[in-house]
Amino acid sequence: MQLSIVEISKPADSNVIVGQAHFIKTVEDVYEALVQAVPGIKFGLAFCEASGPCLIRRTGTDPALEQSAVEAAASIGAGHVFVVMLGNAFPVNVLNQIKSVSEVCTVFCATANRLRVIVAEDGDGRGIVGVIDGSSPKGVESAGDQADRHAMLRRFGYKQ
Questions:
Q1: Helix H or strand E segment including 19
Q2: How far is it, in rounded angstroms, from Cα 82 to Cα 90?
Q3: What backbone phi and psi angles, to 5 degrees, belong to 19?
Q4: Could you give the strand order of the β-sheet that contains 126-133, starting from the edge strand earlier in sequence?
Q5: DSSP 39
């Protein structure tokens, strides 16, 4: 077995969700979950088929985000992995809907940060071992940092 780290490229100001599902129907069901969750959502979705023709299945509402999702899925190259690139929505707006799709087994991450995926390969296939999301902590928040966090959540409309 060989381990590698795959850097995920994504468009500026976008978020990415990486997960694993178990059936080709995932593509259509996750698409429906996303468009129902946020009207006018812009996203791209790619799903790595794990048997049969082993294609990267794709869909979305934005061609550039769809292409980015395909490129990320191809670089991971692990069966049954899906990648969602979000444009005008945050993961918090869609994560529960994605997790409620019956084919979805797990969500590895949902982030706007720099993302690295740890992949194991055994010569016959690949799988995700884990992810490295962003950077390590540099300290503990101060009272000023807490005030900034509270203000940001209210600016985004998540708290009143």
A1: strand 15-21
A2: 17
A3: -150, -175
A4: 2-8, 115-121, 126-133
A5: T
The β-bridge partners of 131 are: 117
Instruction: Check residue 76 and report its DSSP letter.
Output: H
One-letter amino acid at 39 equals: P
Q: Is the Cβ–Cβ distance between 43 and 60 less than 8 Å?
A: yes
Query: What are 111's two structure tokens?
Result: 């982030």
Backbone φ/ψ region at 11: left (φ over 0), alpha (ψ -120 to 50), beta: beta
Number of helices and strands in the chain (H, E): 4, 8
Helix (H, G, I), strand (E, B) or coil at 158: coil
Tokens of 98: 């994605």
* The residue type at 69: A
Written as tens digits, the pLDDT of the chain (160 aa) is 999 999 999 999 999 999 999 998 999 999 999 999 999 999 999 999 999 999 999 999 999 999 999 999 999 999 999 999 999 999 999 999 999 999 999 999 999 999 999 999 998 999 999 999 999 999 999 999 999 999 998 998 888 8
Q: What pTM was estimated for this model as a whole? A: 0.93
- Spatial contact of 17 and 98, defined as CB atoms under 8 Å apart: yes
Cβ neighbour number for residue 111 with a 10 Å cutoff? 17
